[in-house]
Amino acid sequence: MTGPASLAPVGRDAQLRTLLQAVGSPPAVILVQGEAGIGKTRLVHTAIERLRADRRTVLLGHCQQLREPFPYGPVFDALRHAAAALPAGGRLNPVTGALRGYLPELTGHLPPAPSPPPLDDARAERHRLFRAVHALLAAAAPAALVVEDLHWADDGTRDLLRFLTDQPPEGLALVVTFRREDLPVPGLPFGRAYRRRPGVRSEVISLAPLDVEAVRSLTSALLDGAPVPQEFAARLHERTAGVPFVIEEVVRSLRDDAGRLPGGEDAPEVLDRIPVPLLLREAMAERLAGFSPAALRAVRAAAVLRMPADEPLLAAVAGAEEPDADAHENGLSEALRAGVLLEHPDGQYGFRHALAQQAAYDAIPGPDRRPIHRRAMAALSALDPPPLVRLAYHARHAGDLDAWRRHGAAAADHAAAVGDVPLAVEVLEGMLADRKLPRDARGPLALRLSRIAAVGLSYRRVVRLLRHLLSDDFLSRHVRGEARLNLGVLLANQAGANPAGRQEILAALPDLHDRPDLAARGLALLGLPAWGGEPLDIHKAWMDEAEKLLSSVEDQDPELAAAVHANKVTMAMLVGSPDAFTMVSALPENHPSAAVRRQAARAYSNLCDAATALGHYGAAEKFAARSRRISDESGALYPVYLVEMSSLRLDWLTGRWEGLRERAAAAVEMTAEAPLLAVEARLALGMLALARGEWQEAGEQLDATGVRDPDSGYLPVTAPASAGLIELHLTRDALDAALAETEWAVGRLRRKGLWVWGDQVAPQAVAALLRAGRAGEAADLVSEFAAGVDGRTAPSAHAALDLARGALAEHEGRRDEAAGHYARAKSAYEGMPRPHAAARAAEAEAGARLGLGEREEAAKLVARAAERYAALDATRDAARCRRLLREIGAAGPARRTRRAGGGVLSPREAEVARLVALGRTNREIAEVLFLSRRTVDTHVARVLQKLGVRTRNDVREPRPDDRPGPNH
């Protein structure tokens, strides 16, 4: 009979053709999805055989259901077979040396490990490892990387694959298989929505059950080509629902020794004897009924192990003693010949499918399972390192509860240590949910769970589980207090649910009255003023109480002390305290404890964010560099993400806009599990859209920063977001909406008592009030803002004060004074540097100069602003300056003069094409670009002609090569 490895996928010709075409057109990302037993593996392996026959490099990795904590394991498993595809002579990118400790098979090909050397904590190597994998795959290209059963992947593997899909190596085709219904996040194999990148081929191949004719063809193939009556195929289709694996199992169970169906091929009623619910289980039991004892022991050992194993391990679990070695080998051969077990790569033996494994396991009588699990424990314990997750599983099923608790706790700790927090949570969650877990063991495990979760990014499952545990009364007071404190930290940090986090921390304090160091940690978090509606004085009281409690502890925990000091320094920087930079020098960045250095890394990431909010951009860059360095050395995870998000806002403010929109959009997608991390990316996206006249996008993104959530919104981000919304409303002549946003934003700053974060709100709020004829309120706001930032080290706020004073002076007819204020603001912004704000200040100064009759000076200022806007690709801002220059009667800034011919768009046509692609009407385009409707009509007609399309719906956003180059 035809074996499963050589049996071609029946009824999948179109899918196989699509798969092969996509793999042959790299870069490509191919998703193969379908239920268990539907034929994903057979389809992919048929493609692999053809690719290898054509001498194409195929790297194959598998995700395992019962996995050990080894992030990226399936990918590394695939890469260790890449030697033949790598260039000779050590011509690999130096960064690939970071893979030496993970791929010993490639040591002869890899360059030396980069400095600093790899760390024990895999989290710290994350970014470098990802770049190294990318570089290695690029060197092996053209190649196909196949990862099977992605639904069982660890989070690290998903993150790595997301990294590869964001910008695949030029010659790589990535193929993943998965069961959609078994994904951790339904419908998202990579953990977030996959968006095809330009130039990358993307295919989703969905495998459905076979129809009757395909069932007939498959059955015939299983019977070595014998004809199959239509009636039998129809009945088989009805009984198996067209799932290929179930069809194979049923047909194999019905065949007699001659390979025929009992009762003849014209007897479909034979299927009626197999009950539908037990179809697969009974098919397996019937096949095992005729096995020799040795073969049965081998199959049972493989079923208990749940994953492919080599022959010595199978023999040990089967209970084969030395004299029985030949019998075991014969039994294994018998199981292989019967097709119940298969030989996997590297001399591993197991089942063809998880369904087959489960059916074989179910066929083992209950009393017979425990001895096999005990033998599995003994055999696996001898491995180095021991597979702790598997040991915990076998201990539980062997009834050894002490060993189960010991191995389970160790497995969770090890998983957390190597960055696989979701697996650690899964292990602890399973133990806590088990009725066999003794009551006295639940508290320590709950506490372990809360501590582990506080260092990771995945939080949703942990929050649900901790809340459930805390609702019970079995926890001791100390355990309950610390677990609730950790839950509060988790909610306030990773989850971004600050009101709920503060509530949990406050509720934990009574249980921690005799643990002042832990209580101080909670109060120090409450002391950070960037969240919540409490005034600054309350935050100061919390922080003072934290310091007081910590000082009462004689033998201080260095990590807790560092955590409190980190928050104290962060608070000082956030409020613009003159002492902040002096306090930074006391951070324990060189402490011998990695845990303490992680707190220093967190502090520097917070300082980067705080300095960005105040206009200390050079200092922010230095804080970010220190945080990254210490994170790399100490294995910190959360600070790295915080710095990456802060860098988006910093790059927006400092004018590093090239590629920023793409980075920010990717950050939003990648932080679905931690929404707080996405707010700075949302702010950058909203402000970039505003500068380009993309008003709907701007409004949606700025709203998504949390501007309407006074308790959870991060005020250093929501304040500038509100400023952007005020500007948006003023631009659209929606004065009432602008005034409402002004009242909301100013009210929050006023209640908090922190005006240093109003650097962008104050000028826009003053503009809205002046336009509404409320000059008295505008003057009061300027005075209040000035008093609020007096004595604070906040360069951006002081520059904004000059803008606001300039607007007020200009409104009152004091144009010379206004020009001076605007000029000082422009100079301050240039020194930070903050080019977009400097251009805005230059525009404002130009307006005052025009009022003074200084047309030539005004024209110079506007022309320079237009050049800055054009360099930033701030489309609407640049167009506004060009219109003003036309009104002044001055020549605009130098533009590319080469006549755009053929299909090449001129700069103005490219702007129009982008807005058309966004769905803007000609009237809206005219409004954004300050052009007449007739001019826009002409530009749109030229765009359609040059792009060779018939309708507006066919216009896409221009690529850089659609535009003319500079004159040479």
Automatic annotation (TrEMBL):
Q: Which PROSITE patterns match?
A: HTH_LUXR_1 (PS00622), HTH_LUXR_2 (PS50043)
Do you know which InterPro entries this protein is assigned to?
AAA_16, P-loop_NTPase, Sig_transdc_resp-reg_C-effctor, TPR-like_helical_dom_sf, Tscrpt_reg_LuxR_C, WH-like_DNA-bd_sf
One GO MF term attached to the UniProt entry:
ATP binding
Q: Please provide the record's keywords in A-Z order.
A: ATP-binding, Nucleotide-binding
Matching entries from SUPFAM superfamilies are given as: C-terminal effector domain of the bipartite response regulators, P-loop containing nucleoside triphosphate hydrolases, TPR-like
Q: List residues of the HTH luxR-type domain.
A: 898-962
Q: Which CDD domains match?
A: LuxR_C_like
Q: Which PANTHER family match?
A: TESTICULAR SOLUBLE ADENYLYL CYCLASE, TRANSCRIPTIONAL ACTIVATOR DOMAIN
UniProt protein name: ATP-binding protein
Species source reads Microtetraspora fusca
